[in-house]
Specification:
4 domains; Recoverin, domain 1; 40% helix; Phosphorylase Kinase, domain 1; 21 helices; Transferase(Phosphotransferase), domain 1
Length: 506
C-alpha cells in the first residue's frame, strides 16, 4: 500500500454539487461533520464493553461488537495493531477520509481511540454480512435486485468523487448490508477506505492499488483517475447478474493479463434472460478508454437503473417537517452542534423515515441537497405554499456554510424533538464537548469543539463563545453542566439567573 500519488499539501477541499457548483467549502465559523468525530486518548474500555468474539479478522487486526457503557449503543470496533501497521501516515489518511464522508451508503465513523499498542475505530454496526457472501449464497441476483444494489453503490461513489476522493478498492467484500433483510428492504454500506485517497481533478494517480478481478487496466499501468472506480462498478454489476467476474483466471497473473486486454463477453447460456439495457450499462462502465467510460452521474441516469431500481415515487414528509426546519433556525450554535452530533449517532432504525425523505429529495443522487432540490421536493410532496423564507431556512440548516445541505445537517434540522430530548442521547453529545471528562463544558472546551481552525483566534469567535456560554450557563458558574445542557436541549436555552422554572416541560 504505497502513499497516494498526487497527494500534496494543497489537496482540494471537498467538491460541490454537480459540475456547475462551486467547490464545497466550509465557511469560517461553520459547523462541519468531521469536527465532531473525536480522537480520544483515554482507554476505550472506560467507555465501551468489547465483545470477546471477533466479527472479522484481517492482516490489520480485528473487528468486534462493542456496547457504549453510558448510552448502551451497540457499535463495531475495528482494532488496528500499531506494530502490524506498515504506514501510520497512510492509516491517518484513511481516518481523515472516513471523517469527511457523510452519506447514507457509507459506513459511519463515530470516534477513535489510541493507546500505546492499538488504534480503535468505533463505527456503526452492520449486521447483514458482506455483499460477497450474498452473491455466493444466491449465485446471482434478479435485475431489480442488482439495480437496487448498483444504484446505492454508484450514489456513494458519485458522492465520493464530488468530494474528490477516489476509493480504489471497490469489490463485493467491501460492502456490508445493514440487516439480514431481503435486498429490497435492505441498505448497503461501503466499509473500507484503506486504499482511498484524495485526488486533484485532471492530475493522474499512479499508485498501483486494488484487487485483481476488479482493478481497472489504467491502474495496472500506473496512470489513472477516479473513473477507475466506475470500471470496478462495471465488474461488480457483471458479477451480480451472472455470479462470476468478466475477467477470470486461475492465478492473479492470468486475471491481470485479461484485465489489461479488457476483452469480455456475455456467455449466452448465463445472459439470455438479462435485458439489453443491463448489458449496455456494463459496456459503458467497462470501456477501455476512461474518456469513453461513464461517470457516476451518467451511470445513475442510465435507463437500466432508472427503470429497474424502485423510484421514490413521492417524497413523504412528516406534517411538521417545515416547522422542524424553521425551528432549527432559532437554536443557538451549541444546540445546533449538539443536534448535529445526535443526528450522527442515531441508528438506522431511528432515522429511516428521514433518510428516505433525504434520498427522495436528492434528485441527482449525489448525497447533497441544493435549494432547488428542496423546493421541488416540497412541491412534489403537495406543499401548497412554498415558505417565503425557504432560502433563509436553507442557509440556517447549512451548518458548514457550503451552499448545499449535507446528510447529517438535514437529519439534525429535521429530527423530531422526542428523539433528541432523551438523556442518554444527549449524554453522548455532551461527552463530545466535555473533552476532559469532568462533567462540565468549559469555555476552552467549547472553543476547541466549535472552532474549525484553532489557529484562528479572532475576537469575534471569542466573544461569541462567551455569549453562548452565558446563555446556557443557568447558575452563572462559568461552565455548562449536564443539567444546564439538558435544559438547553429541552427548551430554548436559559438566560442567566432564570433557572429551570422558565423551561417548558419535556
Amino acid at each position: 500500500m504505497g502513499g497516494c500519488a498526487g497527494k500534496n499539501a494543497d489537496a482540494p477541499k471537498p467538491g460541490g454539487k454537480a459540475s456547475t457548483m462551486p467547490k464545497k467549502e466550509i465557511k469560517e465559523g461553520g459547523i462541519g461533520h468531521a469536527q465532531f468525530i473525536i480522537e480520544n486518548t483515554g482507554k476505550i474500555t472506560d467507555y465501551y464493553t468489547l465483545d470477546k468474539k471477533k466479527l472479522g479478522e484481517g492482516s490489520y487486526g480485528s473487528v468486534c461488537k462493542a456496547t457504549n457503557i453510558s448510552t448502551k449503543a451497540i457499535r463495531a470496533v475495528k482494532t488496528i495493531s500499531k506494530s502490524q501497521m506498515k504506514n501510520l501516515e497512510r492509516f491517518k489518511q484513511e481516518i481523515a477520509i472516513m471523517k469527511m464522508m457523510d452519506h447514507p451508503n457509507i459506513i459511519k465513523l463515530f470516534e477513535s481511540f489510541e493507546d500505546h499498542r492499538n488504534i480503535y475505530l468505533v463505527m456503526e454496526l452492520c449486521s447483514g454480512g458482506e455483499l460477497f457472501d450474498r452473491i455466493i449464497e444466491s449465485g446471482h441476483f434478479s435485475e431489480v435486485q442488482a439495480a437496487i444494489l448498483m444504484q446505492q453503490i454508484i450514489r456513494a461513489i458519485y458522492y465520493m468523487h464530488e468530494n474528490h476522493v477516489c476509493h480504489r478498492d471497490l469489490k463485493p467484500e467491501n460492502f456490508l448490508f445493514m440487516t439480514k433483510d431481503p435486498i429490497e428492504k435492505n441498505f448497503l454500506k461501503i466499509i473500507d477506505f484503506g486504499l482511498s485517497c484524495k485526488f486533484i481533478p485532471a492530475k493522474p494517480l499512479s499508485t498501483k492499488a486494488g484487487t485483481p478481478y476488479y482493478v481497472a487496466p489504467q491502474v495496472l499501468a500506473g496512470n489513472y483517475d477516479q473513473l477507475s472506480d466506475l470500471w470496478s462498478c462495471g465488474v461488480i454489476m457483471y458479477v451480480l447478474l451472472c455470479g462470476y467476474p468478466p475477467f477470470f483466471g486461475d492465478t492473479d497473473s492470468e486475471v491481470l493479463a485479461k484485465v489489461r486486454l479488457g476483452n469480455f463477453s456475455f456467455n449466452p447460456a448465463d445472459w439470455k434472460n438479462v435485458s439489453e439495457d443491463a448489458k449496455t450499462l456494463i459496456r459503458h462502465l467497462l470501456k477501455m478508454n476512461p474518456k469513453d467510460r461513464y461517470t457516476a452521474e451518467q451511470a445513475l441516469n442510465h435507463e437500466w437503473i432508472k427503470n429497474k431500481a424502485p423510484k421514490a415515487s413521492s417524497v413523504a414528509l412528516q406534517s411538521n417537517f417545515v416547522d422542524n426546519l424553521r425551528g432549527f433556525r432559532s437554536q443557538n450554535k451549541l444546540k445546533k452542534a449538539a443536534l448535529h452530533i445526535i443526528a450522527g449517532q442515531l441508528n438506522e432504525d431511528q432515522i429511516k423515515a428521514l433518510r428516505d425523505t433525504f434520498m427522495g429529495l436528492d434528485k441527482n443522487g449525489d448525497g447533497l441537497l441544493t435549494p432547488a432540490e428542496l423546493k421541488e421536493g416540497l412541491q412534489k410532496a403537495g406543499l401548497k405554499e412554498i415558505p417565503p423564507d425557504l432560502q433563509q431556512i436553507m442557509e440556517d440548516v447549512d451548518a458548514d456554510g457550503s451552499g448545499v445541505i449535507d446528510y447529517t445537517e438535514f437529519l439534525a434540522a429535521t429530527l423530531d424533538r422526542r428523539q433528541y430530548i432523551q438523556e442518554d442521547v444527549c449524554w453522548s453529545a455532551f461527552r463530545v464537548f466535555d473533552r476532559n471528562g469532568d462533567g462540565k463544558i468549559s469555555q476552552d472546551e467549547l472553543k476547541m469543539v466549535l472552532s474549525n481552525d484553532q489557529a484562528v483566534e479572532d475576537t469575534l469567535g471569542h466573544g461569541m463563545i462567551m455569549e453562548l456560554l452565558k446563555e446556557v450557563d443557568g447558575n452563572g458558574d462559568g461552565v455548562i453542566d449536564f443539567q444546564e445542557f439538558m435544559q438547553m436541549m429541552r427548551g430554548a436555552g436559559v438566560k442567566p439567573g432564570m433557572g429551570a422554572a422558565n423551561q417548558p416541560l419535556a
